């Protein structure tokens, strides 16, 4: 009798253990497949994207929806792997800021095949119809604001103009340059500016609108690849190559804050440069300090809080079965992608406190010399 009871007890324990393990397995599957919104960002090596990561987390903190954020670290292969990982976790919406706009096509096409809504974030994914929406700052207006700032802070004629751009693999780099060229070109054509570091741009100075191929040729000469070290090396090379007639008081179109600081440091150490005006964008903390100190002239403030809010608001709308509002479209080479655009703000010494401190974007204690 005892032997039979022991067998029964053992069988009961084994059955209960099996049920427990099955429950755990089921729970694990549910957890791994319970991600509603997958987010893929290009790199953790730039402050901008680290800020975005935290703000995405905060955006859904009080929501019933879940999200997972992965970084591609400048690799299209890693980016595709990240998307595949998120697909396996059952995401319904993919928000992705591509490392390479064209190369990202394969990744988002895999997502679309699974019925996932794809939102390109800040950078457009090109040459594919597998993009549903695009959330962005008006990139053309960013470049136009940079170019206009140089015009507004220039006196006289024959002022040397140094052009720099982002990575040619990033569609935004073309849009930024397009916007800048649209306002700078008339001033180049009339002699206000003299292009100092691009023979291609010099040969096209009388052309108001450039083709993408023409812009690509210019970018080929002046790209920084969004890399401060590459920007520094290019600036050193350019200043070594030119004569005194292309120094003195100069203006510099720098594409973003990281490259702006690197380029400014090089120009500041050249004894033949008497003054420089240099642009930037992203309102990185280090560049805000540079602006306060007079080392960087301006930055285009793209309030990531608003962009994240727009992207997550669009994702939630989709999850709830509704259609998001859009404000325009962008041609990605395959389709017209519906877009929601966010405004940008020019920040310099005059308004840095009002725009970035008083608005709560940064704390005053994070900077020195701020009145």
UniProtKB/TrEMBL annotation:
Entry superkingdom: Bacteria
UniProt name for this protein: Putative multiple sugar transport system substrate-binding protein
Pfam families in UniProt: Peripla_BP_4
Signal peptide range: 1-22
CDD domains reported in the protein's UniProt record: PBP1_ChvE
Domain Periplasmic binding protein: 37-322
UniProt keywords, alphabetically: Signal, Sugar transport, Transport
Subcellular location per the Swiss-Prot or TrEMBL entry: Cell envelope
GO molecular function: carbohydrate binding
GO (cellular component) term, any one: outer membrane-bounded periplasmic space
Principal location listed in the UniProt entry: other
